[in-house]
Design goal:
By secondary structure, this protein is an alpha/beta fold. It contains 8 helices and 9 strands. It folds into 2 domains: 111 residues, Rossmann fold (3-Layer(aba) Sandwich); 116 residues, Rossmann fold (3-Layer(aba) Sandwich), CATH 3.40.50. The protein has a 5-stranded mixed sheet. Strands 6-5-7-8 form a 4-stranded parallel sheet. The two termini are 34 Å apart.
């Protein structure tokens, strides 16, 4: 007897002004996760594409928030969009307990590739933050604290797009052996425009890495989170 595959749906904020590129990127991430979960059907939909999430949704699916924190979108917008469905919600990408160790391995690899001593490498965690509430910054600082424990080498500081300390202020004192690590799931306008502009303003002399969501180990991390969420109690938004 053939059983229907279990369903998981990756969802992200997307880019409201230009939804297709982020939609395509998220579909590529879903395809990579699918390789780790052959018995599942992995779908994807950004919140920025009207109707995409609703069409992808299926009762008893696992919803995976490709977000960095539990904030406005995961706490308010996403449940409202899922109204009338029964589902299980995975932990957001940025709050995954395995993410700091994964990031530490990536930093070690980047240092080795450049021939830099880890102890002499400064790291700037560039994040979104929020002028509307503390959740985004709290998630960033919690991650930074865990990353310092997983990668106890050079100094690590945080800077934000929407609140103090700004990315420019955080980057200004950094030297040539420094790595800017964008604390983002996808490469949207903040990563393409705001972060580079802030680094230019600061006269930043180091290198900038891809977003955390683009790290090679990200699909396996997401797959493990989906499997864990399958064992949690279902939610229902009436």
């Amino acid at each position: 007897m053939t059983h229907a595959p279990r369903i998981a749906i990756l969802t992200a904020h997307g880019q409201p002004s230009a939804p297709p590129p982020q939609e395509i990127h998220l579909a590529a991430v879903a395809a990579a996760v699918q390789d780790h979960l052959p018995d599942w059907e992995i779908r994807s939909a950004t919140l920025a594409s009207p109707g995409f999430l609703e069409r992808a949704m299926s009762d008893d699916a696992v919803v995976y928030p490709f977000f960095m924190a539990r904030g406005w979108f995961t706490g308010r917008v996403l449940p409202e969009r899922l109204r009338g469905h029964r589902f299980r919600m995975a932990l957001p990408f940025g709050m995954d307990p395995a993410l700091p160790d994964m990031t530490a391995r990536a930093l070690q690899s980047e240092c080795a590739r450049r021939g830099w001593a880890a102890e002499e490498t400064e790291v700037l965690l560039a994040a979104h933050g929020s002028a509307r509430g503390p959740k985004a910054a709290e998630a960033t600082e919690a991650f930074a604290s865990k990353l310092r424990a997983a990668w106890p080498h050079g100094p690590l500081c945080t800077g934000y797009v929407e609140q103090a300390p700004s990315i420019a202020d955080a980057a200004r004192p950094l030297g040539r052996r420094s790595l800017c690590l964008p604390f983002f799931a996808q490469t949207g306008a903040h990563v393409r425009n705001d972060i580079p502009e802030a680094l230019t303003e600061a006269g930043y002399r180091g290198d900038t890495l891809p977003v955390l969501g683009a790290l090679p180990e990200a699909p396996s991390l997401i797959a493990a989170a989906i499997q864990r969420a399958q064992d949690t109690a279902p939610l229902s938004c009436a």
